[in-house]
Amino acid sequence: MDLKQMEKKRPRKQKIDYKDVENLRRYITERGKILPNRITGISAQFQKEIKKTVKKARYMALLPFVAKE
User: Fold this and answer.
1) What is the structure's pLDDT at 34?
2) Is the C-alpha dihedral spanning 20, 23, 29, 31 positive or negative?
3) How far apart are alpha carbons 27 and 47 in whole angstroms?
4) How far apart are alpha carbons 25 and 19 in whole angstroms?
5) pTM for the full model?
6) Contact criterion met (CB below 8 Å) for 28 and 35
7) CB neighbours of 28 closer than 8 A, spacing ≥ 6?
8) Secondary structure class of 41 (helix, strand, coil)
9) Residue 50: closest CA among 5, 17, 2, 22
10) Residue 14 · residue 50 · CB < 8 Å
11) How far is CA 60 from CA 9, 30, 38, 47, 50, in A?
12) Measured between alpha carbons, how far apart are the two ends of the chain, in Å?
């Protein structure tokens, strides 16, 4: 599924949860960096929400800060 299609299928009122790691992995690279919204095609508001959620998941040790090499 393309990332632009994923954004279109996302309901507007749904909040993204930091415990939903599988969904969050769609917005980060293999190295653990957050993809920019020009690549994912999501709105700036949703990009800020993704940023906060990914950072919270990293703090809670659900997502790695960097990839293993």
Assistant:
1) 93
2) positive
3) 9
4) 11
5) 0.76
6) yes
7) 34, 35, 54, 63
8) coil
9) 17
10) no
11) 28, 19, 27, 20, 15
12) 27
The answer to whether 18 and 63 have CB atoms below 8 angstroms apart is no
Give the SS3 label for residue 52. helix
- Where does residue 7 rank: exposed (0-12), middle (13-18), buried (19+ CB within 10 A)? middle
Q: What tens-digit pLDDT sequence spans the chain (69 residues)?
A: 566 565 555 545 567 899 999 989 999 998 989 999 899 888 899 999 999 999 999 999 999 888 776
> Which amino acid, residue 66?
V
- Helix (H) or strand (E) segment spanning residue 1: none
> pLDDT value at position 67?
75
